[in-house]
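Sample entry follows:

:::
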Amino acid sequence: MTLPALAEEVVTTYLRAADDEAPGLVEGLYEGRFHPGTDGTAPAGPVTWRTLSGHGTTLRGPEPAGLDLWHDPRALAVWADDDLDRYWRRLCDRASRPFSVWGQAALGGYGTVWIVTGVTRLHFTLATGDITSEEGACRHALETFPPRWHRVAEEALRIRRTDRALPTFTGLLGDMTEFLPAGSGRTRRSL
């Protein structure tokens, strides 16, 4: 297939800009295999490589399946577990203090979607070895988590879909605390 001249010019400009930002990346696309970090830069994380290999969209050149992209399920699981421990645990610890800036942010729609879908996306990754969207994470929670988690997953899904909706106060208080660490003598309930 031959691209129209304008499309060819746009694609060429894009590929040159991408190569300026990440030298060696564009060439890697056409050698049939990616070798992360071989140009001396830090490699992309396992989530990026899994997303490209499983969900990449071809704009020009071969299909992602034909590129033999690097994907290491163990590295992905280790990364997800580390992200839960380093990022999400610290964020939830901060968000569990209701009178702090983080605590107030967690009470808003953005905070609800960010925390609920972020942690649930990592659960999905650890359970399936794949990557999902925020909406996919909520659907995963509704399909696999016990019913007591459904209200908070539905609330996050509602907010995500409407993007400007505000969470209900009772839904927020009743279920958001399940994602926060134990404190003040309260014990954390596991899945």
Notes: The chain has two domains: 5-67, 73-179.
